[in-house]
Amino acid sequence: MVLAELGGRISGAVRQMSNEIIIDDKVLNDCLNEITRALIQSDVQFSIVCDMQKNIKKIVKLNDVAAGHDKRKIIKQAIFGELCRILNPGKASFTPRKGKTSVVMFVGLQGSGKTTTCTKYAHFHQKKGWRPALVCTDTFRAGAFDQLKQNAAKAKIPFYGSYTESDPVRIAVEGVERLKKENCDLIIVDTSGRHKQEAALFEEMRQLSEATKPDLVIFIMDSSIGQAAFDQARAFNQSVAVGAVIVTKLDGHAKGGGALSAVAATKSPVVFVGTGEHMDEFQVFDVEPFVKRLLGMGGDWSGLVDKIQEAMPMDQQPELLQKLSEGNFTLRTMYEQIQTILKMGPMSEVFSMLPGFNQELMPKGSEKGSQTYKLKRYLIMMDSMTKKELDSPNAELMNESRIARIAKGSGSPVEDVKEMMEAYKRMAKMWSKASKGKGLNISKKISK
Ligand code: GDP
């Protein structure tokens, strides 16, 4: 079950419960059983899911709920809290500071996406003003040196490695020393992997960690490894002190639940997720917005605003963000947003962050092409609108005759124009909610 499907099933279970007239223990059990099944089928460890069920039942005592209190809300809040608790190990990860040298070591099995992720991590921090550098200590896999060197060159990131030296520890120590002298403040050490967990690999990781004294060890986990995630993460954590997890390949057919198990095994937070092979297909991972998305509780404001900031030239941002913050979400704002979104790249990633733009409104199937097509159709429909229609904050203006005119003008079925108006209303509602202080701190974002 891919992650989007897991989200669909969990939010479906919660929605189903909300539809019931009387909320009793049977309704609660049905909802929890469906969530349990969905999580287990997504590779979350059985014991973790059982604990979650038990805790929710402990928190929600339906018979003790005083009259007038919303039982659905109490259950939803308990589910939200428990999912956050599983993903939040209660310990923050080390955050590198600009201008002060930090060494970050990447560990994981071969093929987990370590080398690709090292460059993504470096590139991410470079864009935010760090001076990152990459060290290749993988003397085991032929081609690792060239791969990282080429990636580093593409991203214009300093690189250290050796074709001839076979001792990874020596390369690591020399590389870190050299790059420190070059004033790099984030030195990223890529290590070698093996196809399977074996003693030689863990011994090498231990030696590398001892020699370079990393500020942070990040465990890279391929999200498609499923149930093996717990054991693998625990095995790495026993040889080096893992401080953070990055889950890769969440764009594929990953079940995603392994991430929850990796957090449980290492007691370390997931800090980023990889969502594609490209350098920019990399996102900061925040527990609460992620769980909200799983539960269908609205969008990931911070992620979306960051994406808009990335995609739009600096001089255009304050205006759009200001408009959004004022809750002044007109069809023209949606038009501008869609234009921005179309420049952003990976559609599925952006859609999942777009508040109010529920996946249900998108065509079935996840072909990026069809999502892009649909957005382009929306732009064409809006091209057939009058200035007044685009700038009016009042959706009620769009009566049947206006809709019929727009449909005719843009060569679209009336149902499609209506559907676009539904999307608009949802988005306007979500943005207005956000601007009333729930999660979107525009002034902070603008002045950043
Ligand atoms: P390593 O052996 O752990 O260093 O793994 P690599 O970095 O060489 O990655 C193995 C394969 O996974 C390569 O083909 C990468 O392009 C691919 N890969 C890495 N991260 C992602 C991701 O987030 N999504 C997808 N689709 N592929 C990825």
Give a brief rundown of this model:
This protein is an alpha/beta fold.
Radius of gyration: 24 Å
Look at the structure and give the mean pLDDT: 81
SSE ordering: HHHHEHEHEHEHEHEHEEHHHHHHHHHH
Low-confidence stretches: 356-369, 437-448
- Global morphology: globular
Q: What's the story with the biggest beta sheet?
A: 8 strands, mixed
User: What's the end-to-end separation, in Å?
Assistant: 38 Å
Report the total helices.
20
Structural class: alpha/beta
CATH homologous superfamily heading of the largest domain: P-loop containing nucleotide triphosphate hydrolases
**Residue share in helices?**
55-70%
The level 1 CATH classification of the largest domain is Alpha Beta
In this entry the ligands are: guanosine-5'-diphosphate
Number of strands: 8
What is the number of domains? 3
Which architecture name of the largest domain does CATH use? 3-Layer(aba) Sandwich
Share of residues in strands: 5-15%
- The CATH topology of the largest domain is what? Rossmann fold
Question: SSE layout and pairings?
Answer:
Blueprint: H1 3-19, H2 25-41, H3 46-59, H4 71-87, E1 102-107, H5 114-127, E2 132-136, H6 144-154, E3 159-160, H7 168-181, E4 186-190, H8 199-212, E5 216-222, H9 228-239, E6 244-248, H10 258-266, E7 270-274, E8 282-284, H11 287-294, H12 301-311, H13 317-325, H14 331-344, H15 347-353, H16 368-383, H17 387-391, H18 400-410, H19 414-435, H20 442-447
Parallel strand pairs: 1-4, 1-5, 2-3, 2-4, 5-6, 6-7
Antiparallel strand pairs: 7-8
Bound molecules: guanosine-5'-diphosphate (GDP).
Guanosine-5'-diphosphate (GDP) is lined by residues 108, 110-116, 193, 248-249, 251-252, 274-277.
Keywords: Cytoplasm, Endoplasmic reticulum, GTP-binding, Hydrolase, Nucleotide-binding, Ribonucleoprotein, RNA-binding, Signal recognition particle
Protein name: Signal recognition particle 54 kDa protein
Subunit structure: Component of a signal recognition particle (SRP) complex that consists of a 7SL RNA molecule of 300 nucleotides and six protein subunits: SRP72, SRP68, SRP54, SRP19, SRP14 and SRP9.
